[in-house]
Design goal:
This protein is an all-alpha fold and about 100 residues long. The chain contains four helices and no strands. The protein has one domain.
């Protein structure tokens, strides 16, 4: 028996709406967005400051902080977008396996 299709983004929407309503609604999302924005601003400022002082800046730490801060700042946009891309990749793989591709 093969899976017909995978829809992770719809499942995430259900989980996210349940968590949001259980944990305080938009207040939690607002607080996470503020924390994520502050992380991104401070990471970029620190990276620029290190570059100005000719220390090169830590690109890897900047990247991880930008990703983490971005997810915190906009989880309702970034996570469904990534899951939709993953849906396409998984469903393509399933179709290739089902059709002997």
């Amino acid at each position: 028996m093969f899976l017909a299709s995978v829809n992770l983004s719809t499942n995430w929407s259900s989980i996210n709406s349940s968590l949001t309503s259980a944990l305080g609604g938009s207040q939690l999302s607002s607080m996470l967005a503020i924390v994520g924005t502050v992380l991104v601003v401070f990471a970029v400022a620190k990276w620029l400051w290190d570059r100005r002082r000719n220390q090169g800046g830590n690109h890897q730490a900047l990247l991880y902080t930008l990703v983490f801060g971005g997810v915190l700042a906009a989880p309702d946009v970034i996570i469904p977008m990534l899951l939709s891309i993953l849906d396409v990749v998984i469903n393509l793989g399933i179709n290739l396996v089902n059709h002997g591709g």
